[in-house]
Amino acid sequence: MGKFKAFLERKDIVISGKRYGVDALGAMAQGLFASLLIGTIIATIGEQAGIQWLVDVGGFAKSMAGPAMAASIAYALRTPNLVLFSMLAVGAAANKLGGAGGPLAVYVVTIFASEFGKAVSKETKIDILVTPLVTIAVGIGLSYWWAPAIGSAASSLGHVIMWATTKQPFLMGILVSVIVGMALTLPISSAAICAALSLTGLAGGAALAGCCAQMVGFAVLSFRENGWNGIISQGLGTSMLQMGNIVKNPKIWIAPTLVSAITGPMATCLYHLEMNGPAIASGMGTCGLVGPIGVYTGWMSEISAGTRTMIAGADWVGLISISVVLPVVLTIILGMMMRKIGWIKPGDLKLE
Predict the structure, then answer these.
(1) What DSSP assignment string belongs to 282-333?
(2) Domain limits of the chain?
(3) How confident is the model at residue 71 (pLDDT cuts 50, 70, 90)?
(4) What's the pLDDT score for residue 126?
(5) How many whole angstroms separate alpha carbon 350 and alpha carbon 116?
(6) Dihedral of CA 164/169/174/177: which sign?
(7) pLDDT at 116
(8) For the residues 109-118, what does the mean pLDDT come to?
(9) Is the pLDDT of residue 48 over 90?
(10) Which of 164, 284, 306 is nearest to 295 (CA)?
(11) In sequence order, what are the beta bridge partners of 201?
């Protein structure tokens, strides 16, 4: 057992929740952003502006989602170069064979293939042949074996969540909004979770509400300490920056979380806000305005498909209210109350 532990340590194979649940999942979201999401945005701009080459560029970017995710995960797992480069083929296979749940299939398969590849890397004199051969064989073999089932399970769970949200929009609006919003602030990836579950429709709208509540909420709540730099870094970046302060004083998390519990059911019951763009956008919130842009691309897709005739003023009111206005107003009110009773003290939200 001691020799095996020494081997794992030498190969930098760390079996831990942080390595697989934080590092790998966060990297997967970056890979999705750099392919599927940015490709969707570029293609949408091209479609609206009538520029075909932008549509083509976006299409090429979207087609590389599987390889991009796999390479990003492998990079986070600190794989040697030959393993990292071999992941492009593994990601393409897992994403295709996983169907609608392809992102989760890529995530699981890539972790196993990466660790197998690391285990054999530089163990033979013909490393340039052995390492990519083992990595690709394991990765694609597992893709054929596991990816369809993983993809089907993820897709089914996503469909159950979306179905439940349509049947119980108030309760599920609260649950989805709070859970996904908190995942965005935690050092895990809400975007990757939404993508893995293909979370769209009303459930996607609730997820967007929760993410916006956290990002915009913390940006506004910490304005006294961080000023406009904090507005930009948290409102357009990520509320994860507050994680260190949350550990010191968990009470600062109450206001944004309560706001998400309010705006979630408002998104589902009042505004009927749906995310019918890419599922990853459901978990992005106002980061680079990706969430609202995702809603807009969904509207345009519906118009193209003939299921929507136009974007009404009420649609814009709902989107802006859920994404910005309500999080700002409600967080200011709750923040004042929290400061008055001493749950939030000066400096509690200061970013280093």
Answers:
(1) GGTTTGGGHHHHHHHHHHHHHHHHTS-S---HHHHHHHHIIIIIHHHHHHHH
(2) 2-154, 168-340
(3) very high
(4) 94
(5) 43
(6) positive
(7) 95
(8) 96
(9) no
(10) 284
(11) 275
Backbone angles phi, psi at 178, to 5 degrees: -65, -45
| Mean pLDDT computed over 100-108 | 87
Q: How many CB atoms lie within 10 A of CB 46?
A: 18
Give the 3-state secondary structure of residue 275.
strand
pLDDT digits (tens, 9 = 90+) for 284-303: 899 878 899 999 989 988 99
CB atoms inside a 10 Å sphere around CB 304: 10
The interaxial angle of helices 52-63 and 38-49, nearest 10 deg, is 160
Question: Is the pLDDT score of 72 beyond 90?
Answer: yes
| Amino acid at position 140, single letter | I
Characterise 311 by phi-psi region: left (phi > 0), alpha (psi -120 to 50), beta (else). beta
DSSP 187-200: TS-HHHHHHHTT--
Q: Is the Cβ–Cβ distance between 31 and 72 less than 8 Å?
A: yes
Q: Cα–chain-centroid distance for residue 95?
A: 16
Collapse the DSSP code of 4 into the 3-class scheme (helix H, G, I; strand E, B; otherwise coil) and give the result. Answer: helix
Q: How far is CA 225 from CA 204, 217, 222, 328, in A?
A: 32, 14, 5, 16
Token reading at 287: 């980061």
- pTM, whole model, 2 decimals? 0.79
- Give residue 212's identity as a one-letter amino acid code: C
What tokens appear for 167 in the block?
Answer: 């049947």
- Euclidean distance between the first and final Cα of the chain, in Å? 43
d(CA 321, CA 323): 6
How large is the C-alpha radius of gyration of the chain? 21
Which residue has better confidence, 12 or 315? 315
Angle at 217 between CA 213 and CA 219, to 5 degrees: 135
Polymer length of the chain: 352
| Cβ atoms of 210 and 259 closer than 8 Å | no
pLDDT over 90, % of the chain: 63
